[in-house]
Amino acid sequence: MALYVKKFGGTSVGSTARIEAVADKIVAARGQGHDIVVVLSAMSGETNRLIALAEEIQQNPSPRELDVLISTGEQVTIALLSMALQKRGCRARSFTGSQVRILTDEAHTRARIREIDCKSIRAELALGGVVVVAGFQGTDENGNITTLGRGGSDTSAVALAAALKADECQIYTDVKGVYTTDPRVVDDARLLRTITFEEMLELASLGAKVLQIRSVEFAGKYKVPLRVLSSFEDDPGTLISLEESNEMEAPIISGIAFTRDEAKITVAGVPDVPGVAHQVIGPVSDAGIEVDVIVQNVSLDGTTTDITFTVKRQDCEQAQQIISRVAESLRARSVFVDAKIAKVSLVGVGMRSHAGIASKMFKTLATESINIQIITTSEIKISVVIEEKYLELAVRSLHAAFDLALDPVA
After folding, report:
1. Domain closes at, from 158, 174, 190
2. 277 lies in a domain?
3. Is 367 a member of any domain?
4. How do residues 258-270 score in pLDDT, each as one tens digit?
């Protein structure tokens, strides 16, 4: 008998019919003798609806009251699923984050989990019941309801699996698993059967939307076996593993991630002195704006240099305002902004032992007349910044150049 934590997202529980289908899956798993803990999101669109209601009342609602409001979405789904299971003769009991005692810090709308008390869950499992837990929420030390931020139900599921020492945490979504790239961009994108935590963490941080990055970090830290699979099809999905593949023909590149919502800011002609990078980037970071790629050019004359960095496009206007003030104080020559860029990244642990990956990537893009504006690398990743209009062409060309559509064990 195994213990599985199964998390179902908003589209999986988007209607009573889909909740009934989830109940059938759980009853089938329970019938095989497994212990089951289910973690649910709110119905698709429900959290956005609740936020919109709050904003009708108050333009900037109190984070504490907002958490009280948006946490109700998951309470609806856990109660409905428990009813559906009971209708099928399966013992089931729902638990909110406070009933399980998922203790978080006090950062409303973006709380982090500190510990989980599993006593109530273990007691219910011992009685043969299915435990249905509200994802995305917990309570702080003062009993205030907190939420974990967008995608927080994934983190709830992984944290519960770690606390319970579950055999596997299974994340059910509206796709069959993790693909070599977005199938909406590349028709022959291939479903990966396994991928390492390291690769998945890079893909998630670089734009892949399958899993919330915090949940992958959590799973890797606590060594929780993690599987992504479809709510609507019977398929084993993708296992995110701790170990690299030992297959002789395992691919060098596992996947291609990309982001469309990037903007680039260049501060030209700043003094080439120690600490200037902090003077430029520091105020942007202090404003809560996440800075991604940073490049400082080598000074040719020993007096001035250029610093380029990227931010989310939604933060571009605010970052530009900050940088304009910084540039004035530093007497920089000029500030350039380009809000029509994209980032494309190759990810694969095989890069550690194979040379020529970067050269092949650059040649492929050059063949398509795609100019590279910025290059950054890590041990298992190469990222390039290009014009947004070439994004899909770049992804398709790289996918074909590295034969990612081919099954390496076929």
Report:
1. 174
2. yes
3. yes
4. 998 899 999 999 9
Question: CB 60: neighbour CB atoms within 10 A?
Answer: 8
Nearest to residue 344, comparing CAs of 365, 314, 367, 368? 365
- Residue 326 corresponds to which tokens in the numbers above? 């910084």
Provide the CATH number for the domain around residue 165: 3.40.1160.10
All residues at 6 or more sequence positions from 330 whose CB lies less than 8 Å from its CB, including other chains: 267, 270, 271, 276, 279, 280
Instruction: Taking the CA atoms of 217, 376, 195 and 341 in sequence, report the sign of the dihedral they define.
Output: positive
Boundaries of domain holding 347: 256-401
Question: Which amino acid, residue 392?
Answer: E
Identify whether 261 is part of a domain: yes
**How far is residue 237's CA from residue 227's CA, in Å, rounded to a whole number?**
7
Number of domains in the chain: 2
Helix, strand counts (H, E) of the chain: 13, 18
- CA dist., res. 80 & res. 10, Å (int): 14
Rounded to a whole number of angstroms, the CA Rg of the chain reads: 24
The residue-averaged pLDDT of 43-61 equals: 94
Q: Which two tokens stand for residue 394?
A: 């770049």
* pTM for the structure as a whole: 0.84
d(CA 41, CA 261): 26
